[in-house]
Amino acid sequence: MAYQGIIDDLKKCVALEKPYRIPCFPLGIDFDVWQAGVSHREYRNNPETMIKTGINAVEKFDYDWFILFPDDLVEWEYTGIEVTDDEIVPPAVLKYLNPSRSTLNRLQVPEPEKFGRMPQYLEGLRGLKRHFGDSICLAGRIAAPFSGVALLIGIEAMLMMMLEDPGLLHDWMKYITKCNRIWAQAQIEAGADALWLGDCLATSNFISVDDFINIAAPHANENAQIISAYDAFSFYHGSESSLEHLQAAIKYVDASAINLGEKINVGEIAGLTGNEKCLMGNIDPLSVLENGSCENVIRETERIVKSGMEEGGYIFSTAEGIAHDTPPENVKACVETVHRIGVYK
After folding, report:
1. How far apart are CA 99 and CA 106, in angstroms?
2. Which of 51, 85, 47 is nearest to 66 (CA)?
3. Do the bridges between strand 137-143 and strand 82-83 make them parallel or antiparallel, or are there none, so unpaired?
4. Is 127 in contact with 190 (CB distance < 8 Å)?
5. pLDDT > 90: what percent of the chain?
6. CA 189 vs CA 92, 141, 154, 226: distances in Å
7. Buried-most residue among 2, 15, 96, 144 (CB within 10 A)?
């Protein structure tokens, strides 16, 4: 019988308390699609395939959650970006919007029940919620504004705008927030218990910690607060391993939890920040899950869980998405290990 207490455990983790059992939230994403034996095109367009994929992932691997994440573009296609339509990989942008103020001024806000693939996505959430109820945490996703702008105008144009016209970038981010408010509400009303707040460009790979604090963080924080206002959990993610950037995210982004990159010790960051924020992470999905032996997976999972769970306020997750060709036995070994050792006595 499935464990029924995951939402209560998640609430305790976010409150920096010790749950009965550590939630195990692997970022299956691409892996889950391949394990369901469906194509990406089917998955991103067909609610029944979304539901089938989620049920298969949870039943086969015993996840404590399912994140419905067909791609980053499902809520942005209506803006006029041109995207690929490949059978076996998620869509990518073929042609971005012109990064001008006139472009920004003409953009509409979304109507989630009418525009693009948003209605199919919401129906997928509804079906998953009907099936699972509260036996898992059901998660949707939005892009934080700094990274969201890049989905519309491209990374290079966004970074140049940050240097040359920060006021215009600020207005583009305000537009993303306006859209996210609508899209977040629609997902939560459709059954999402949590939203993944992705911000992979607001990291040490692209910007300084000062730029993070002054430019990206205020908008990410507003989006996290929007999610909280709709009574859902927010998981802020940049796959960040810079201690300075993580300390800034913990201080300036009021998310329910911060997901960590694989190159930092969970216990170390918790100790240095005084256990101020629930942390998620952070097994390496490539060198450990995809390429490691089962014994290595078990050993590394044990190390991470023991490091993270000591003081409470910890959720096990992967640092990034699990690759599609990861051995299923490695994912099973990882989840089984979390469930075995992640129980507080």
Report:
1. 12
2. 51
3. unpaired
4. no
5. 94
6. 28, 13, 31, 14
7. 144
The token duo for 310 is 């000591």
Using an 8 Å Cβ cutoff, are 186 and 120 in contact? no
Using DSSP bridges, classify how beta strands 314-318 and 278-283 pair: parallel, antiparallel or unpaired: parallel
Residue 184's closest CA among 109, 240, 106? 109
Q: Is the pLDDT of residue 1 over 60?
A: no
Q: Hey, is 39 helix, strand or coil?
A: coil
Read off the tokens for 193. 């218990």
Cβ atoms of 184 and 222 closer than 8 Å: no
For residues 261 and 272, what is the distance between their CA atoms, to the nearest angstrom?
A: 16
pLDDT at 2 over 70: no
Judge contact between 16 and 315, C-beta under 8 A: no
Would you state the pLDDT for residue 4?
Answer: 73
- Token pair listed for 33: 């699609």
Q: How far apart are CA 246 and CA 203, in angstroms?
A: 9
DSSP-derived secondary structure letter, 343: B
DSSP 8-state assignment for residue 110: P
- pTM exceeding 0.90: yes
Q: Is 249 helix (H, G, I), strand (E, B) or coil?
A: helix
> How is residue 134 written in tokens?
């509260």
pLDDT band at 3 (very low <50, low <70, confident <90, very high): low
Residue count of the chain:
345
User: Do 314 and 22 meet the contact criterion of CB atoms below 8 Å apart?
Assistant: yes
Q: What is the pLDDT of residue 272?
A: 75
R_g (Cα) of the chain, nearest Å? 19
What torsion, rounded to 10 degrees, do the Cα atoms 49, 53, 55, 59 define? 150
Distance (Å, rounded) from C-alpha 142 to C-alpha 267?
28
Q: Taking residues 114-131, report their average pLDDT.
A: 98
Where in the chain does DSSP place strands (E)? 24-25, 65-67, 82-83, 93-95, 137-143, 194-198, 233-240, 257-260, 278-283, 314-318
